[in-house]
Fold this sequence. Notes:
Blueprint: E1 4-5, H1 19-27, E2 33-36, E3 39-43, E4 47-49, E5 54-57, E6 61-65, E7 71-76, E8 100-102, E9 105-107, E10 113-118, E11 120-121, E12 124-126, E13 129-131, E14 136-140, E15 148-149, E16 152-154, E17 157-159, E18 169-173, E19 179-181, E20 184-186, E21 190-194, E22 200-202, E23 205-207, H2 218-233, E24 257-261, E25 266-269, E26 272-274, E27 278-282, E28 286-289, E29 292-294, E30 305-309, E31 314-317, E32 320-322, E33 329-332, E34 338-341, E35 344-346
Parallel strand pairs: 1-2, 2-5, 3-6, 4-7, 5-8, 6-9, 7-10, 8-12, 9-13, 10-14, 11-15, 12-16, 13-17, 14-18, 16-19, 17-20, 18-21, 19-22, 20-23, 21-24, 22-25, 23-26, 24-27, 25-28, 26-29, 27-30, 28-31, 29-32, 30-33, 31-34, 32-35
Amino acid sequence: MYDTNLKDFPRLKGEESDSFRIQRAIDATENGVLCIPKGDYYISKTIFITNRCSLEMHPAARLIAVEEMDFIIEYSAKGNYHALTLFNEDGSVYDNLGLFIRGGDIDGAGKASCLSITNAHHFTITNTALHNGKKFGLHIGGDRGGHIYELICNNVYCKCTMKGLNGNIGIYSNRHDAHFNDCIVVDYTIGMRMLGSANRITRCHLWSGTVPPRNISVKDWSNIYADRKMKLSNGVYGEDEIKEYQNDIPEMLDGSISFDMVGGENVLDGCYADTAEIGYLISNNTRMINCDFFNNKLMGMKKSTAIKHVKGKLVVCSCNFRGTVGSEFLYEGDGNNVEWIACSATGGENMKIPTCNKTIKA
């Protein structure tokens, strides 16, 4: 169901990108749904959504940055979202729930970040791909915070497929009370960075390795990985097998962190930190339940830390940690305010679960 269709908004004479027709279509769809059909759309200027327009995009509708800009799409709904209730101009209550961006592929192409969301109430992003964000795939909250609560992210797929983007962030949020479910982040240096608090992060899988080391081509890296995998499956892969490459790691693993938990009272449930220099960086009160850590030795990374605990109370319950190289560390921190409950770990000497729990201070 939709109210307007982008096919009814063609490029005008002299327009060399699709930014202007998309903006016209959005401006014509206040409080409605705009359908964006299958196709490649070239974006030279940021698209702004300020009128509560929702986007229904075909899975093969690709918005591709062709010029430098901050974001391809900036969503900031009209309304006083800092207040408890929204009102129409006549003073009546206007509690417009269920607004969304659904589907589509937003590709920053290394020129732009993909999607920014500020000022929203129970907004949903679902089934959307965010490729090659220059700084961010998904940026929630804005530099000045914005007013967002009950944001729902389902099946958001952030992935980089090009070189030169080391240091970017897949999903960044400085807001609170959001739910991130079944999100995948591949080859963003920081998978998820949560500055806000009381967020629920469920079944999210963050990993890197498809973007090759800086001095190796994509094709050569794919062949190297396939060769390592074959040798490992045959039981002959070892440290000396590919000496000329053993000190090179994929570009996006340099300085990588899967889950960077800065805000307090965030909950990670069923999440998977799959190959990063730091799996879980904990800087505030955090609960980890049914979470996993794994270091894929085929990526060539020697040192990896499952949990780096800077401060805050940390509960680690029913989690599984796997080191494959022998040089991984399960935990780095002073050990205070940590409780380990029914966890398991395999790997080298530094992958052992602590033998006693530290009392968590009230």
